[in-house]
Amino acid sequence: MDWYLRSADQGNSDVQLNIGYLYSTGQGVAQDDSQTMVWYEKVADQGNATAQYNLGGCMTTEKELLRICPRPLSGSAKRLKEGTWKRSRKSTLWSDKDMMLELILVTIRPIMHGARSNDTLTFMTVHENRPLVQAVRRVYETGQPTTPSNITYITCHPDSSSSGNNVILWEDIKTVFGDVAYVRSGSIVQTFLKGGDFKNLDPLRIRAVPGATLEVVVRGQPIYTEPTAQQKTSNRASLQELLRDALQETQKTTRHSKYSYIRNPVPARPPRTLKTAITQQLSTSISNPNTYNSPKVTPLSPPQPAPEDQPAHGATQDFISTMMTARTGCKYAQASLGIMYLDGLGVSQDYKQAKDWLLKAAEQGSADAQCNVGYIYENGKGIPHDPYKAALWFAMSAEQGLRFAQHNLGCLYRDGRGVPKDDTKAAELFLKAAEQGHSGAQENIGFAYDKGQGVPQDHAKAAEWYLKSAEQGSLFSQYNLGVLYRYGRGVKQDHDQSLAWYLKAAEQGSTDAMCAIGYNYQYGDGATQDYTQAMEWYVKAADLGNPTAQNNIAIMYDDGQGVPQDYEIAMDWFLKAAEQGLATAQNSLGVMYQYGQGVLQDYSLAVGWYREAADQGHADAQFNLGNMYEDGEGVEVDKTEAIMWYQKAAEQGNTNAKKRLELLERRA
C-alpha cells in the first residue's frame, strides 16, 4: 500500500483508481467509504471515464437522495425564519408510467453559529407512480385507509460532531417537497392536517441517525413536467445544463463527507450472443455446435463485483445511478443503460431506448455496446432484422478483440448471413475467441477441425477444443467428446470415457447423449447389454422430441427387443420420427406400408415415404424406390426411373442396388 500511495502522489491515475477500489472493498486496508470517494474523485477530475462512472455509482444513496449536506438540516422554526431557503432549480429528468425521476437543487443560506455561509444541496428523488403494497396510507377520522399514496424516501446523515440527537424539521421537508402530505418513520404514521380532530404536527421532529430512512408521502401524482411560474424566472437551463450543474455542485458540497453512502458501481452488462437451433444428429454422429455462451461481465478498471444479494429495489437504484452517469457521456454507463432497457431491468423494457443508448456507447468505441447493437440487428429487437448491419457492428467490436463479437461474426460467416459464406474466415474468428476462453467458440472450432470446415480435418485438435469447452459445461462438446472416444477419433478409443461424457451431457438435457447411452445399452456397446436401460434412455430422449430416439424405440418394438413385438406401436414411433424428417424412419415407414406390417398394405404410401427418404440421399430408400418402379407397385412400371434410383443407391455402396444393376445389364 505504501508503494501505491507514493505512486499515487506522483499523479498516476491508474494507481489512484485502484486505491479507491481497495478502500471500497476493504482489500488490504480498512473499508472506508469516504476514502473511496476521495480517490475516485481525484481520478474523475482528470477526465477518466471509468472513475466518473464508478463515482456515479457512489453517488446513489440507499434510496432516492443523491446527496445530502454533511451538516444536518436542524434548528428551530425561529432560526429557519432568520435564514433564507430558496429552491433554485427543479426539473423532471425522466418519467414513465411507473416512476418519475426528479432533480432538485436547493441553495440554503442559514444563519447559524458555525455554519457555512452558502451550502448547496442536491436532491434526486424518485416518485413511484404505481401503487405500492407497503405504501403509507392516508388516515381519516374513520380510521379507514384509502388508496395507497405515492412515496419518496430521504436517508438522513448527521455530521461528524453529531451525537445522534439531531433532528430533521417538518419545515425542512416541506421546503424541498412542497406538496407532501405527511411523513412516517418506521411503522408510526404521522398525519398532517387530516381533519379538525387531528392535531397539526408542525413542526414534526424525527431523530436523524446515520442510515435512518423517512418515508415522505406525496399528494396526487407528483409529475412535474413543467416548472411553476416561480421556477420559470430562475430556471432557464437545459436538461443537460441542469444535470451538469447539479453534479458539479454535488461534488463541491460532498467532497469531504464522511457519511456518503457507497454502492457498488453498476458494471456494463454482458454482450448478447447469437442463438440458433441445434440440428439433431444420429446417436453415433457429432452434434452441430451451438452459437451461444454463458454471460460475461464486462470488467471496469478495477473490476466492481455486484453484491450477491440485492434488495428488491436494487434494479431501480442501479437504473437511476446508471442513467445519471450515462447522461454525462460515460460510454460504460450508456452501454449498461442500453442493456437495462433491453432486458427491462429497473425500467420498463424499451427496445428503442436500448438501441439509442447502445448506439451512443458504440459510437464512442465501446466494444461491448458495438456487440450488443449487432445483437439487436441480428435478432430484430424493435427494429427490422438486418444481418448485414449486425455483421458490421460485430466486426467493429471483434477488431477490438471482444471474444463475443468474434464468435458471433464467425457464426455469420459460417452460415452466410449478412456476409458471404466463408468457412475459413469463420474458423479464424472462432479460433481467436476460443483462445480467449469463449466456450461456444471452443466448441465451434472443435467442430470445424472435426469436420474439416475452413481448416484441415484434425480429430486430435477437435478433441482438444471439445475438452476445453466441455470442462466449461458445454453439453454439446461433452456429447461430441463422447463420440470421439467411442470411435477412437483423435483420441485412444475408450468406451468408459465415452459413456462418462455422454452421462455428463445427458444430465444437462442433451437428447443426443441420452440416445447414445440408450444405443450403448441396446447393443452392449461400451456397456452391458440391457434392453430395459436402453428403453428408459430412449424414452427420455424421445419424450423431448429426439427423432433418433423415437426411431430406435420403434426398432425395439419392431424386432421385439426387451418388449413384446408390436408392429402397431412400432408404426406410431416410426411416424413420429419420420414427421420430423428422419430419413431412416421414413424408409422404415415405407417398408411397413409395402408389406402391411402394423398397418394396411398401401403401395402408394410406401412409394411416398421411400421418396421422402430417397430425396435426402438414404441409400436403402433409393434402392426400395427403384424396386417399386421396376415392379410397378404404387407407380407405373418405369425401368429408366428404376435404373436411375439403383444407380444413386449403388454410388453410395448399396450392394443390393449393384447386384440389381448387374442383373438388368445381363438381361439387356
Salient structural properties:
alpha+beta; Serine Threonine Protein Phosphatase 5, Tetratricopeptide repeat; four-stranded antiparallel sheet; three-stranded antiparallel sheet; elongated
Based on CA inertia axes, which overall geometry fits? elongated
User: What percentage of the residues does DSSP assign to strands (E)?
Assistant: 5-15%
Task: Specify the number of helices.
Answer: 28
Taking all Cα atoms into account, the compactness measure Rg is: 35 Å
How far apart the termini lie comes to: 96 Å
In this structure, how is the largest beta sheet organized? 4 strands, antiparallel
- Helical content stands at 40-55%
Structural class: alpha+beta
Question: Would you give an account of this structure?
Answer:
The chain is an alpha+beta fold. It is built from 28 helices and 9 strands. It has a 4-stranded antiparallel β-sheet with strand order 4-9-6-7, covered by helices on one side. A 3-stranded antiparallel β-sheet has the order 1-2-3. The radius of gyration is 35 Å and the shape is elongated. Helices cover 50% and strands 9% of the residues. The chain has helices spanning 2-9, 13-25, 33-44, 49-58, 77-82, 170-176, 229-234, 239-254, 314-326, 331-343, 351-363, 367-379, 387-399, 403-415, 423-435, 439-451, 459-471, 475-487, 495-507, 511-523, 531-543, 547-559, 567-579, 583-595, 603-614, 619-631, 639-651, 655-667; strands spanning 84-95, 99-109, 119-128, 150-155, 167-169, 180-185, 188-190, 205-207, 213-218. Among the domains are: 2-60, no CATH class; 77-239, no CATH class; 266-302 and 311-416, Alpha Horseshoe (Serine Threonine Protein Phosphatase 5, Tetratricopeptide repeat), CATH 1.25.40; 422-508, Serine Threonine Protein Phosphatase 5, Tetratricopeptide repeat (Alpha Horseshoe). Helix 1 (2-9) crosses helix 2 and helix 18 (475-487) runs antiparallel to helix 19.
